[in-house]
Amino acid sequence: MKSIRNNRSFQYAEIRDEDVSPTERPIATVQKKAFKYVTVAGGGLIVLALFLFLSMRAATVLLMPSIMVVQTSLLHAEDRLSVLDTAGMKERGFDTGLLAFGNTECNKLMKAIKLETFGYCKPPPLEETSSVSVDSNVKYQEILGFGGAFTEAASINFFKLPNEIQERILALYWGAEGLGYTLGRVPINSCDFSPSSYSFDEIKGDSSLQYFDTELTHDNAFMMPLMRLAMEEASRWGNDLKLVASPWSPPAWMKEPVNGVQSMNGSASPMGLINTHKMKETWAKYLAKWVGSYHDKGVPIWAITPQNEPEFAAPWEACKWDAETEKDWIADYLGPIMRHYHPNVKILAFDHNKDHLYDWAKTILGHDASAEYVDGMAFHWYAGGLDRLLDGTYGYNNVNKTHHAYPNKLLISTEGCSCPGVDIDSWFRAERHGHDVIFDLQNYANGWIDWNLLVNHDGGTSLSPLTFLG
How far is the C-alpha of 14 from the C-alpha of 5, rounded, in Å? Predict the structure, then answer.
């Protein structure tokens, strides 16, 4: 893919005069020609003011050896900058001078000074179609697909809808004329988008898992019925739905107490699971039993991750690990036990923010005993910390480095959501999602999984003190 020109608000173009006409080019790109068109006598001060305005609002620029990323939006104040991996882009054939994205429509001030007269804000005619050039002789990683998460909130919301709307959603997500989703994510036990905490063995000290609920009563109420419908819709068009399962927390009785209390919510540090041979073995067998029970109920699991967001002691369901302890647990417990009971189920390590993806990959995939059992790395789109405006804006260099260090391992983005709250009219959120998908794939990701498939207008149902939108 060498160039894209689009007649709508998402702009992505090489800075070549012969490739993009002035009226198609993002505002930031055509600033250098502004003086050519502004010939009003005595207008020097106006031009200067306009130049400063555009520089501040529309041309936030990040310079790299051969790449600039430019904010072209005049409708939003938020920055949309991404740190790109220059070497990786060059390898892909992107001798790009400028990448830009955002909405280039005129705001009120721009209209007042009639900048659209010069074609700087006016999009090309709608009848013009976008064009994409593809070199089919060059192949990169296999794309396994895209999908969303079958949380309990998503499933409850789905079955509240009228039958005809349910059918429409199934067609839009998994149908041949819809998105054609082929990936999905499933929480093991409750997560922050469950109405209440639960596990499948609440009997304290049941290390033999004698009381494990193999009927999966809780999940079989809403979650598994939705998965079966999705699998059926996908199979109608010859697609298999690959499900990635992730635990947020073990049962409370398996965890180290925090302030004297054992709970699925929160986590002790540096490790949330009770650090004994018996408990590490029991937790690995629990996961294997969960996978087997799902299979027996007609919902096969394609892969598991050892822990959702292992670096975060969240106030909802959580269990901390560091790279060393996860590596050892995989090598000594989870890997051998899963290989024994479910040899075809893959293990994707890490499952947290991609700013630390490469560090975890070096520890886990760089160690023969754990790498033997690990098929790849899972990662999320979030930036570190709680600044949600930075989500989906950086970390692609770590995806790229991990691929080149371990080219035979899978890389799958397993969670990305815009949060907090619901913002139905936010094109900014949509742009960030699209941006993250594009740049994950450009840096060798094999798939991308969104968060909740459905939420209500309040962003729920959830346990989280923050309301997220998937």
Answer: 9
